[in-house]
Write a structure and sequence with these properties.
188 residues; alpha/beta; Rossmann fold; six-stranded mixed beta sheet; three-stranded parallel beta sheet; 5 helices; 19% strand; transcription regulation
Length: 188
């Protein structure tokens, strides 16, 4: 039993649909009229960050857009702040998909300090839907991960393995849900 991994067909894997959630974020921002979507990606060695970055590139390419340069963080609000200072200096940056809510929080602070208003000047979407996301300023549009469902499916898979003689293999993806709040709007 493996969670949040690319173990593929060698094991039983349960994971959040990283790619599906990312595509929903990119589609939402492009649907608002943004010409492109910048990505504040997670660490290179993270499976979830790899999946989200690949899906971001694919979604933009499928929409006929050239992906802008990737900006990377380490999942922390501090790294989001540092990346946000870089993104705030780019006038062409009107939409950012942050690979998690903590980095989005740091990004929001950096944009605010540099005089870039969210969502009027820059739209921001996070990933996770942490309990505090609705209390960010502005409240963060984000992708909800159903960790309880991931856990439930893991327990079910372990119990099935205990009852069966043969190994169960394959990947089960738990869908995400886009939670719309106040951090996204059409571009200026």
């Amino acid at each position: 039993m493996v969670v949040d991994s690319d173990a593929g067909d060698h094991y039983t894997v349960v994971d959040t649909d990283q790619a599906g959630g990312t595509r929903a974020a990119v589609r939402h921002l492009l649907g608002l009229g943004h010409r492109t979507v910048w990505h504040l990606g997670g660490p290179e060695d993270s499976f979830a960050a790899q999946r989200r970055t690949a899906a971001w590139r694919e979604a933009l390419t499928e929409a006929g857009r050239v992906p802008p340069p990737l900006v990377r963080g380490d999942w922390s609000a501090d790294s989001g702040y540092r990346a946000g200072l870089e993104l705030a200096a780019r006038d062409e940056c009107t939409a950012v998909f942050a690979a998690n809510d903590q980095m989005a929080l740091g990004l929001l602070r950096a944009l605010h300090e540099r005089g870039r208003r969210v969502p009027e000047d820059v739209s921001v979407i996070g990933f996770d839907d942490i309990p505090e996301a609705s209390s960010f300023l502005p409240p963060l549009t984000t992708l909800h991960q159903d960790f309880a469902e991931v856990g439930r499916l893991c327990v079910e898979a372990v119990l099935r393995k205990m009852r069966q003689a043969g190994p169960e293999r394959g990947t089960t993806l738990v869908p995400t849900r886009l939670v719309l709040r106040a951090s996204t709007a059409p571009p200026p």
